[in-house]
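Would you be willing to look carefully at the protein I have copied below?

:::
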Amino acid sequence: MKLENVMLEKSDHIATITLNRPDAFNSFNFDLGNDLVTALEACTDDSDVKVVVITGSGRAFCAGGDLVLFQKSSDISNTLRQVIKILNTGIMVMRRMSQPIIASINGAVGAAGMSIAAACDLRICASSVNFKQAYTSVGLVPDGAWTLLIPLLIGLGKASELALLDPVFDAYKALEMGFVNQVVEDSVLKKVTYDTASRLVKGPSLAFTVVKENLNNAMLGFLERQLELERRGMTMIGKTADAREGISAFLDKRKPVFRGE
């Protein structure tokens, strides 16, 4: 299996998927998305894999969508539609796979990176990490089941605050809100992650499968519908002048001027 934008390694019944576009802060584009889905499906089909760990290379876990890709596109709306299709496939595979997934959050998280982390079953976070919702600040809207998973984790009121005001928040705030399960010093993130994964490997894997399925049925019955609603919304927003202005302003390192158009 040849993967260029993620790394897939397996040891002691633990599969590790590392997002690997470090120069672009592991931002989500077609290539990374396709490789991520391929790696996830390989883990799903591997009976030797009992736990999956997702992490990032370099200074980020995943900073979100690749805004350079969108800026260069002659049709931002269609490019968003196609990229989100891949992201949505990945989110569905993550939730449907029987194995528990641990997000080992090693660096900056934004936008689709939050969605990927939220789709995991557990989130262990390095203390230096900062988070940002990031969509609305560039005139876009959340995707990847953000509007379903984040409110389930932190509550509707706090999710609304993140979506509308888009603050930067640190690892300890993420823990306080309930977005992450544990915050550890950067130097021990890998050890704590694999200690937790090893504990799950030794646990009742069939029971974990049923637990995950039941949690999905109880809490995520609208997942497919929400993913499609978000995709439609992003496709519509991608046609606006505000979206193009927001993306350009971010890449130009200036404050955007939104006109509601």
In short: The two ends are 45 Å apart (CA to CA).
